[in-house]
Write a structure and sequence with these properties.
This protein folds into two domains: 13-50 and 312-420, Aspartate Aminotransferase, domain 1; 53-310, Aspartate Aminotransferase, domain 2 (3-Layer(aba) Sandwich). The chain starts with 12 loop residues before the first strand and ends with a helix. The protein has 421 residues and is α/β, with parallel strands linked by helices. It is built from 14 helices and 19 strands. Bound molecules: pyridoxal-5'-phosphate. The site of pyridoxal-5'-phosphate has 12 residues, from helix 4. Residues 107-109, 137, 139-140, 186, 190, 215, 217-218, 238 line the site of pyridoxal-5'-phosphate.
Length: 421
Amino acid sequence: MSASPTLAIAPTASAGLDLARIRAEFPILRQRVHGKPLVYLDNAASAQRPKAVIDAISECYSTYYANIHRGVHLLSERSTAAYEGAREKVRAFLNAASVQEIIFTRNTTESINLVASSFGGSTVKTGDEIVITGMEHHSNIVPWQLLCERTGARLKVAPFTDAGELILDEYERLLDSGRVKLAAFVHLSNALGTLNPVQRMIELAHARGIPTLVDGAQSIPHVAVDVRALDCEFYAFSSHKIYGPSGVGVLYGKQALLEAMPPYQGGGDMIRLVTFEKTEYADLPNKFEAGTPNIAGVIGLGAALDWVNAIGLDAVAAHEHELLDYATAQLQEIPGLKIMGTARDKAALAAFTIQGIHPHDIGTILDREGVAIRAGHHCAQPVMQRYGVPATARASFAVYNTRDEVDALVKALWKVKELFE
Ligand SMILES: Cc1ncc(COP(=O)(O)O)c(C=O)c1O
């Protein structure tokens, strides 16, 4: 192994970012675990929150929280303004045409289920097909399987190469059946780190009149997304992956489609008029937001997007790329370590196995060294099956990670090797 890394996590500047200042904004990163400085490399599962987000949520609950939309009192008006203000922030972040195209959900999973149930349930019939890729998270597989079971439609899966790159010709071939009602695919794979050519995938689908859904759960904190440039019909993401609170998700949908779709759930706030004979639904976006939403959580997401905008996603991406390259070079020096996912276009995470050592053992030993990674199937069991492994270890990066933390990861992995020799 090269020079022994230090375990003191000394932030440095990278890609023009002041990492010391950025890290100082994350109170949770200041702690030690098992007597070692915390090295948090489980960001693909959930990122941490800066103080600006924690403060926004705390301020909401401490000073102006009330239920939204139906109140005539000041607190309700303030909460409504903050909640709807966050919707505008999401609209701007995605460059959507209108706030009516931004639906708040619980998470990416619920956003996809909403589309499968409402769009799928109203348009998909026996014999129709849904196209996905082989590298999907379970969230972008199971809702379509449920839809297929209900309707008699079929799920078609576009394969990927050993490197983890989608085979575009195969994807295109699947679109050609004349029966495809939707193509739904991940932007950035949580199991491989592959950045899919989503612009091209959308164009190929559109050339055949097929609408598209992009699972942006992983891409959202790493890649600037412009839904109007992409021209996708739906884009789904979760707040907790982009430094916002958990329990909040977003579904972007093109207005004409959302207007044509039936409600996903029924209840308060999604109606205009209810009688026992008939209910008239509210306009977008309320039609898809039945019941009291996660008000403070949505406001927290707005604060998270402000925070990311202030840094700039380009700088974030450049820094994370540098970290990934630095990590990849060092990981490759460890005998028996195999990186899973070596696509040319890749971001933010390294998934790997070490011959003869179970990923859970790797994760457990790393934890004793203060290094938090994820070990498991990453809710992508078909990807594990594709490579014939039960699980992988995964280190995933965020804007606050440093080269010293990569060194700490690599040093801990050498320790794992020593323990198993
Ligand atoms: C690619 C991908 N899609 C969907 C999801 C589901 O996100 P959530 O659990 O927030 O619904 C995840 C979560 O890890 C993911 O990585």
